[in-house]
Design a protein that fits this description.
By secondary structure, the protein is of the alpha+beta class. It has 3 domains: about 1-40, no CATH class; about 50-140, Immunoglobulins (Immunoglobulin-like, Sandwich); about 145-230, no CATH class. It is about 30% helix and about 30% strand. The chain has helices at about 150-155, 165-175, 180-200, 205-225, 225-230, and strands at about 1-10, 35-40, 50-55, 60-70, 75-85, 90, 95-100, 100-110, 115-125, 130-135, 135-140. Strands 5, 6, 7, 9, 10 and 11 form a 6-stranded antiparallel β-sheet that branches. Strands 3-4-8 form a 3-stranded antiparallel β-sheet, with no helix packed on it. It is elongated and about 105 Å long. The chain starts with a strand and ends with a helix.
Length: about 230
Amino acid sequence: ACYEFVNWIGDVDTIADVNAASTDITMNGDYSITAEFEELPFPSEDPTVTTQAATEVSTSSATLNMNYTVGDFSQAEVCFAYKKSTSLVWYYTDWVSKSVDDTHAESVTGLSSNTKYDFKAQVSYNNTEIEIEGAIFQFTTDTPSPSRGCFIATATYGTPAAEQIDVLREFWDRVLLKSPAGSQFVALYYQFSPPVADFIAGNEFLRAIGRELLIDPIVWAVEATEDVWQN
């Protein structure tokens, strides 16, 4: 229940303001003073939240959307929960305070490409003691186009315009993407290689090792068998 101060009752002759919750009193002897409160009606309409479809979905990010109301409360807090559909672990955006009915959107980044995600909108009120969840929606991040490929090779050479990368792209398009097994490999590569490439790109030693022990030998093998896979 909620209560609101009404006034002071009892021996109130020396109280400066009997109707003020915070006031002064002159103490000249023993007094019996009581603060009187009245019970306020509890808000009858609770906040609501409705999950809306994700927008601006890319290979590694998406915008999550919701509609919400604050009901009879002065404010409510909203956030999103999201996870990979195959995972049990939820991640959460920060709680954001709202005082009027409206829509809310949050951009989440660092997602894996070609991956299905679940998400739901949440609203909390009454000092975050009560939570309401919207329905679970899904979206699938994009698969990068072949022209964006060779993340690791680009990181090791420091530029997507390197001649060796052109060789790999041609092999990628002519061979890998033409078979089910190759297409599956491409999907896995797009999912797991970006963070590896980011890690390599920031370390000159790893870039050199990657060029000499990984990418250059692959490029050499592809070029050596060019007459085979081009025909």
